[in-house]
Write a structure and sequence with these properties.
This protein has 113 residues and is mainly alpha-helical. It has three helices and no strands. The protein is rod-shaped.
Length: 113
Amino acid sequence: MALFSLDFANKEEKNEIKNLKDEIKQKDLELSSKSLENLEFKNVKNNQDIRALKMETEIESIETQNLFELEISKKRNTEKSKTSPKFDKHRKKCKKCKKCKNSILYLLFYIKN
């Protein structure tokens, strides 16, 4: 009978140890799931930050491109406004003087017409 009670006590202790191990595993799973949730949240936040940075760089590149195109169009407009009326008058009078033959403007107007 003493052996039976000792064996029964060992079974109870084994069950308690098994239950404690199960509780520890459960807590580990809970902690790991919480840490995974935190990592996923951080990952989502980082992805949002990356998207925001990409959008900012795209906007900046578009703005610089627009500024560059605007400067080019301004230069073209000023060149046309400075030269074309006077040069047209001159071209009508002189048909191919040395000045006109060597100038780029003459070639441009000659090609256009």
